[in-house]
Amino acid sequence: MCNLYRMANSATEVARMFSVEGDASNAGGDVFPGYPGMVVAGGTLQSMAWGFPLVMKSKKTGKPLKPKPVNNARTDKLDSFFWRHSFEEHRCLIPLSAWAEAEGPRGSMTRTWQRVAGEEVFAVAGIWRDSDEWGRCYSMVMTDAEGPSKSVHNRMPVILRPETYKTWQSASADEARALCVAYDGDLEINRTDEPWFRRN
Asked: Which of 37, 122, 129, 133 is the most buried (most CB within 10 A)?
């Protein structure tokens, strides 16, 4: 599942590419769960926290713990209570330059980046909601991986083509669900020696 992606372009550039207005200047660069990312929702570019908050309790004390960001929504779980309302009512576009998966043995995993070939920025399917904990937040919709991406991980983001952006955001849930398939275009895969966990 995707726990890291990159947006190399500025908010101004992204707004222009998607023909929207808005301010998401505090988002960009490498985006991790719980941190702000750029989202196109309601016809504007916005900054939201990546991940729906999952409130958990301590097994020892019974007291609430810091919420965990649930940043990936599986296509086969979109009808569940946790995701259903957002999928039906609050779908969005997540602009990105590339996403990363961890590969290699535990303790020495490295970053493998994937991107749509020839595209500076592309969009993947997202859903969003308002939360008490972090304000507006979003999650990335994931589907079973196919093609070259399957050699990296068994799941991949739902990559949307520009002609489907409007359908994903405003059509019926059934029409949107039909878009939740593996991307069949060309992907570039870049296996690096970058450590998955960077120690400062």
From this structure: 37
